[in-house]
Design goal:
The structure holds two protein chains of two kinds.
Chain A (H helix, E strand, L loop, with lengths): L1 H31 L1 H7 L2 E2 L2 E2 H33 L1
Antiparallel strand pairs in A: 1-2
Helix pairs in contact in A: 1-3
Chain B lengths: L2 H22 L5 H6 L6 H12 L2 H14 L4 H25 L4 H8 L3 H34 L3 H51 L4 H5 L2 E2 L11 E2 H11 L12 H16 L2 H4 L8 H37 L2 E2 L5 H8 L3 E3 L7 E2 L53 E3 L3 H9 L4 H39 L5 H24 L5 H15 L1 H10 L5 H24 L16 H18 L6 H11 L11
Antiparallel strand pairs in B: 1-2, 3-5, 4-6
Helix pairs in contact in B: 1-8, 1-16, 3-8, 3-13, 4-13, 4-15, 4-16, 5-11, 5-13, 5-22, 6-7, 7-8, 7-16, 7-17, 7-18, 8-13, 8-16, 8-17, 11-18, 11-21, 13-15, 16-17, 18-20, 18-21, 19-20, 19-21, 20-21
Classes of the chains: A mainly alpha, B mainly alpha.
């Protein structure tokens, strides 16, 4: 039972940290802090950082997130169910 | 060879492939019908889900939206892909573990209540129905453009094909057909983009072309190069639009719309159900990675296509005399997708944005859609002095803009504007049709199972046999398709496009919180869930109806949020109401709490991985 609980807690931690990255990349960098980033952050190619995040960057981050999720969760499954 | 025949050959071939696949993988049992027997590989399922995901609206009109609104259109790009992340890490693995065939099944069992199940069924039917209508319209438009037949005939042909393989093949047939459709769509979308990128930016990869230099018409190599984004900003401001890279929407509105699209996406029943077709929870995660990767191929190309086509469109048409206008312009005039009104009588096309007039408008005519002039006697349309098509709409003289085009035309017109070979254009046509058909088929399946399984078997007639259930599913899909085809032929004006966008808000404010809490809180009971769903959807629907149909003014918007983004607020309301009501009503039984416990562990005791 406690094994089940700690599995759940660890997977929750993973999900929450992924969600934080998800928020920062999409709603954060691409919308909320976009103007500041366009002004002050580096450029990607010729595109201002905030604009690039909104059009391409966040989607790339999303793909990476799902890969991290799949690998991380499979590891947790192994750890607790062998 | 004529373009028309090349189109015929490409579309004919792709159809032949789909139909062969559908026949070879016919469903034998209800389980195969609903979830393909649970034995589809993650890669194949990923492709099929991607095809399911990308509707005709995404495929045809997203790049058009990017072309027109630049940065603001990022809300669609991020909303739909970001929603997929939520779907994958918050919903799908748990619902898959639960192991039932449909989403209302989960709601009904988790909240141990027929009322909750019925509300879920109604939501599912409403969401799917509005979607299919839009798809049918899309199919009709593409067919009519292709073969010069009327839209009604196009819709009917499309509907029969969808019925053929959705009805016969069930989920198994659909899954494998959609794999083929994804391949067609991906090639159809990226190949024209690559060609155009080479022409405009001398870069083979469109995504890099967008953030690279503009090189077309700049033969002196080594001369000072200009960034492509600067070029498009310059073009835009020159003719009176805002800069391409800066947005027009307010920050809070942009935030709410994006968030509503994300959460709404995570509550879409036809995509959730897709993941019930893979073997186990680990395979679900893998499959989701593949899906997003395949979706991203298209979504990362869309911003490039949008920007390229905007540059091409303006350079080809602005200040061009109608006599020298390229032939594709006349083709699109024929299908009522482009209109030119010679306001100043100089025989040239002028395209101007709102900043060029005191009224701050750029509409060519009054009303949303152009209507072409007809001569009553023989039914032939009347033409202008230069042979241009005339419209019956009242002309808007408050601004100098003379060019109107439908958003949807951008993707289809793009290869023609860039003068690409005929086979590329034909491939694109096949892709458009694949996009519309694949989504329509997936939706139809969810709709028919919602009716036959959740409504008939679980609520009305529990003694239904497997075979009878299948029969009801087929009848339901036929009826749904007939209704959708009817609305495809007679769209309630701009109604469909609007409701499709609003359906996301409704899904965000109803399904999304209920499913989420159902998984992550053991304490949530049926009273809380039902109260939350109802208050969320009533608030959102009320706001939309008030501002769309009852004449609410934009100045009355709550915090400046448009009806498009109000689903996000409705969602917050749903959460608050659910938790408040649940606090004051009894907790669910131990049995239900154990059930929640069980879906959280991917294997656990009595693992539900029997299919």
């Amino acid at each position: 039972m406690s094994k089940k609980k700690s599995h759940w807690r660890e997977s929750l931690n993973l999900v929450i940290s992924l969600l934080i990255v998800w928020f920062v990349a999409s709603l954060g960098c691409s919308i909320l802090w976009r103007d500041w980033l366009d002004e002050h952050a580096f450029k990607v190619g010729n595109a201002p950082f905030g604009f690039w995040m909104a059009q391409q960057g966040s989607i790339i981050v999303f793909i990476l997130l799902l890969f991290v999720y799949a690998i991380g969760m499979n590891k947790l499954d192994k750890k607790y169910h062998n | 060879m004529d373009q028309k025949w090349v189109n015929f050959i490409f579309i004919g071939l792709s159809f032949a492939v789909y139909i062969v696949i559908a026949i070879r993988s016919r469903a034998g049992s209800t389980k195969e019908y609903y979830t393909a027997g649970g034995g589809v590989s993650p890669l194949a399922n990923g492709m099929a889900t991607a095809a399911d995901w990308m509707s005709a609206a995404t495929f045809i009109s997203m790049a058009g939206a990017v072309a027109i609104s630049g940065y603001d259109a990022s809300r669609f790009l991020m909303g739909w892909t970001g929603g997929f992340v939520l779907l994958t890490i918050l919903m799908v693995p748990y619902l898959r573990k639960f192991g039932k065939a449909t989403v209302p099944d989960f709601v009904g069992d988790r909240y141990y209540s027929k009322v909750a199940r019925a509300v879920a069924v109604i939501c599912a039917i409403f969401i799917c129905m509005t979607y299919i209508m839009g798809q049918m319209r899309g199919v009709g438009v593409v067919f009519s453009q292709l073969f010069g037949i009327g839209i009604p005939a196009g819709v009917i042909i499309g509907a029969s094909i969808v019925f053929f393989y959705a009805g016969l093949g069930g989920m198994k047939g659909i899954t494998y057909t959609q794999v083929a459709q994804y391949c067609v769509m991906a090639f159809a979308y990226t190949i024209p983009a690559i060609f155009i990128s080479i022409v405009l930016t001398n870069n083979m990869i469109p995504q890099l072309g967008l953030i690279g230099d503009f090189t077309a018409g700049n033969p002196t190599q080594g001369a000072e190069s200009i960034s492509f984004l600067d070029k498009i900003n310059a073009i835009n401001t020159q003719i009176g639009f805002q800069e391409y890279t800066s947005g027009k929407l307010s920050k809070i509105n942009m935030f709410c719309i994006t968030a509503a699209l994300m959460c709404g996406t995570a509550g879409l029943p036809h995509v959730i159900v897709r993941f019930f077709t893979v073997k186990d929870v680990a395979a679900v995660r893998k499959s989701a990675c593949w899906t997003l990767l395949f979706i991203a191929v298209i979504y990362l190309t869309a911003p490039a296509i949008g920007a390229f086509s905007r540059v091409n469109l303006i350079q080809e048409l602005h200040q061009t005399s109608y006599k020298e206008v390229p032939t594709w312009f006349k083709d699109f005039e024929k299908t009522q997708q482009m209109v030119w009104v010679d306001k100043n009588g100089d025989g040239k096309i002028q395209y101007f944005g709102p900043a060029k007039s005191e009224a701050n408008t750029f509409s060519v005519f009054k009303g949303k859609q152009p209507t072409y002039k007809l001569i009553a006697k023989d039914g032939e349309e009347e033409f202008g002095s230069l042979g241009q098509r005339l419209i019956t709409n009242e002309i808007d003289h408050s601004n100098p803009n003379e060019l109107w085009f439908g958003n949807d035309v951008m993707v289809m017109a793009n290869p023609q504007m860039a003068g690409l070979p005929k086979w590329v254009i034909a491939l694109l046509m096949a892709g458009c049709i694949a996009a519309a058909l694949s989504t329509a088929a997936g939706l139809l399946l969810v709709l028919s199972t919602s009716i036959s399984h959740d409504l008939m078997k679980k609520i009305i007639k529990p003694e239904l046999s497997d075979k009878q259930e299948m029969k009801y599913a087929r009848i339901a899909s036929f009826a749904a398709l007939a209704i959708a085809a009817y609305f495809g032929i007679n769209p309630p004006s701009a109604f469909i496009a609007k409701t499709v966008a609003f359906a996301f808000g409704l899904a965000a404010s109803s399904f999304f919180p209920t499913l989420l809490i159902g998984i992550f809180s053991k304490r949530m009971n049926k009273e809380g869930a039902v109260a939350g769903m109802i208050s969320g959807i009533v608030f959102t629907l009320g706001y939309i109806i008030y501002f769309q149909f009852l004449g609410g003014k934009p100045s009355q918007y709550l915090l400046g949020i448009t009806p498009e983004g109000i689903g996000f607020v409705g969602m917050l309301l749903n959460f608050v109401v659910s938790f408040t009501v649940a606090r004051f009503t009894p907790a669910p039984s131990q049995e239900i709490q154990d059930l929640v416990e069980d879906i959280r562990s991917p294997k656990g005791v009595g693992a539900a991985v029997d299919h």
